[in-house]
Amino acid sequence: MKTYRIAVIPGDGIGKEVVPAAIEVLDQAAHLDGSFQFEWTTFPWGCDYYLETGKMMPDNGIEILKGYDQIFLGAVGMPNLVPDHISLWGLLIKIRREMKQSINVRPAKLLQGLPSPLRKPNDFDLVVVRENSEGEYAESGGRIHSGQDEVAIQNAIFTRKGTERAMRYAFEIAKTRRQHVTSATKSNGITYSMPFWDEVFVQVGKDFKDIGQVSTHIDALAAFFVMKPESFDVIVASNLFGDILTDLGGAIMGSIGIAPAANLNIERQYPSMFEPVHGSAPDIAGQGIANPLGQIWTGKMMLDFLGYHELGTRVLNAIEATLAQGIKTADLGGTSTLRDVTSAVLNHLR
Ligand SMILES: NC(=O)c1ccc[n+]([C@@H]2O[C@H](COP(=O)([O-])OP(=O)(O)OC[C@H]3O[C@@H](n4cnc5c(N)ncnc54)[C@H](O)[C@@H]3O)[C@@H](O)[C@H]2O)c1
């Protein structure tokens, strides 16, 4: 039987509650499939670890993680005890950068039983593929002078390699979905990087002639996410545009507690990291009322990445069936606990 060795970092706050719930669901999914199993190794890294040791993870943390197939992370942050820039840069960003997780993927889907803030949404089901390593968030630039003479320069860096990689990945996943890719551009306003982005999109698109392809300016695209999200399948976007679009995608779904995400090393040279969009929610931590569905859906994305698409779909169906039954945590207007929701998902996954 195939065994996947997964490094687990529950992190802080509700991460410690939702991660074990998702592991229960993933173990049951593996059991259902019968051809593979998970071997979970938990690392206590995060803010408690920082308060004890002065570090978010040990110096050889990255080396340790490289020995695993994938990383399953909850959330990191205890802003009242450790400043966010320390918790974020000492763990999450370090892992994303050093493991070359250059693609960020976030789906957004209208789920039965989960009211969207859109007034009368049609059935939407989209995925944003965000370039995660360069673009507008490249650490390039500087500040000189002070006072009235002060100048700040921020360079956006787009490499052919990074741009192509994100676009090819978007086309590849469109093949497994509804066969359409939208490229988020702004070549009518940004004079060098975005015309380059458009050219690369056309070039890469030639290798995927059967897949529908269109470029849309990011401002219009943002409006269409609200007006007609059902018109999208896969969207490929630069780091900044993708960052904004994925939050919008999460928002039109209805709750941050449900949104999943993956940071992928698509070359599969290093482990990828699967983590929900939400943070450690210190305001509700330890009460057993956190919504585990974001973490469970994140687990579904790990199943997809490992090649178990049908099984992943069964997990998502179980999430949807749970919501449709009205079993919801307080963030979705319900009264169910984390345990109730997890048990319902397990019951639907049979
Ligand atoms: N990937 C990560 O590890 C990550 C992401 C975002 C924020 N953070 C960190 O988390 C800490 C708290 O940040 P924040 O409050 O801005 O964002 P947050 O996502 O933790 O919480 C925002 C609001 O959403 C609610 N919420 C979030 N997830 C929920 C869930 N699963 N079930 C029910 N309600 C949920 C919270 O109770 C809170 O009211 C900070 O330290 C921040 O840096 C970490």
Structure commentary:
- Helix content is 40%, strand content 19%.
- It contains 11 helices and 12 strands.
- The chain has helices spanning 15-33, 47-53, 61-66, 84-98, 160-175, 193-205, 218-227, 239-253, 293-305, 309-324, 338-348; strands at residues 2-11, 36-42, 70-75, 103-109, 125-131, 141-144, 151-154, 180-185, 212-217, 234-237, 262-264, 272-274.
- β8 (180-185), α6 and β9 (212-217) form a beta-alpha-beta unit.
- The model has no long low-confidence stretch (mean pLDDT 96).
- The structure holds nicotinamide-adenine-dinucleotide (NAD).
- Nicotinamide-adenine-dinucleotide (NAD) binds at residues 14, 18, 75-77, 79, 84, 88, 92, 256-257, 275, 278-284, 290-291, 294, 329, 331.
- It holds the Pfam family Iso_dh.
What is the CA-based Rg, rounded? 20 Å
On the 0 to 100 scale, the average pLDDT is 96
Query: Class by helix and strand content?
Result: alpha/beta
> Bound compounds, please?
nicotinamide-adenine-dinucleotide
Shape: globular
* N-to-C SSE string, H for helix and E for strand: EHEHHEHEEEEHEHEHEHEEHHH
Strand tally? 12
Would you state the CATH class of the largest domain? Alpha Beta
